[in-house]
Prior knowledge:
Order of helices and strands: EHHEHEHEHEHEHHEEEEHEH
Structural class: alpha/beta
Distance between the termini: 8 Å
Amino acid sequence: xxxxxxxxxxxxxxxxxxxxxxxxxxxxxxxxxxxxxxxxxxxxxxxxxxxxxxxxxxxxxxxxxxxxxxxxxxxxxxxxxxxxxxxxxxxxxxxxxxxxxxxxxxxxxxxxxxxxxxxxxxxxxxxxxxxxxxxxxxxxxxxxxxxxxxxxxxxxxxxxxxxxxxxxxxxxxxxxxxxxxxxxxxxxxxxxxxxxxxxxxxxxxxxxxxxxxxxxxxxxxxxxxxxxxxxxxxxxxxxxxxxxxxxxxxxxxxxxxxxxxxxxxxxxxxxx
Length: 272
C-alpha cells in the first residue's frame, strides 16, 4: 500500500502560528511530524525566498502554487509566466489558475468574458507546459466564478488540452451540486485534490458562508462534516490515484487542531 502524499495550505500554517503565538518554524515541525510532506502556496507568498527556505528547512516540498487573475478584463495569459516559472524553479509540479470573475450575470457579457478567459488560460497553459508544470483549475466557491461548477470546469478543460482538475471536495456544496456526480464527471482529469469538509452545525468560532441556495456552511476538520470526503478518497485510491491530498479549512478557529484531526481522518479514509 502506498504512503499517502498529504499537503496543507501554507496560509493555515501561518494562521496557526498566530493563533498559538508560536513561530512558523514550530508549526512546520509539528505538521511534518504528522506526516504532512507538502504545502500549498499562493504565488504572492513565493515572491521572496523566505517562506520557501522555512519549508525546505522543515524537510517539506511545494504541492501546488495558486494565483488569482482578472482574465475577463485583461485576457493576457503571459501575465502567468512568472507564476509558472517560479513554480518550476521551486519544484512544484502544478499551478492552479483562478481566472477571475464575471462582472455581470448578463448572458451576452458572460459569454464575451468567458471567451476572454479561455484565450488567456490557453496561453498560460501553454507556458506551464513549456516549464514542465501541470496547470489546473478548481471548483471555486463564488457564484461569479466561471469555474464554480463541475460543468463550468469541464467546459474549459475540454477546450484546453493541457488543463487538468484540482478537485475541491467542499466547494460543490457551495454550488449545490452532488460531490459524487461531480467526481464521476471529472474523474479522468483529476490530478490534485483539496480535502475540504463543511459542517451545517452552527459554530460561532468558525467562519460561516452561505451556499447559493442559502445553506449555512461552517469550517470543520475533514471527516467532521457532511461532505462525502471518505467516499471520494476511497474511489481515488481504488482508481490508482497517485497525487497529493491537500488539507483545507479556511476560517478554522484553531488551525493546528483542525490539521491534526484532518490528517488522522484522511489516513483512515484511505486505509493508510
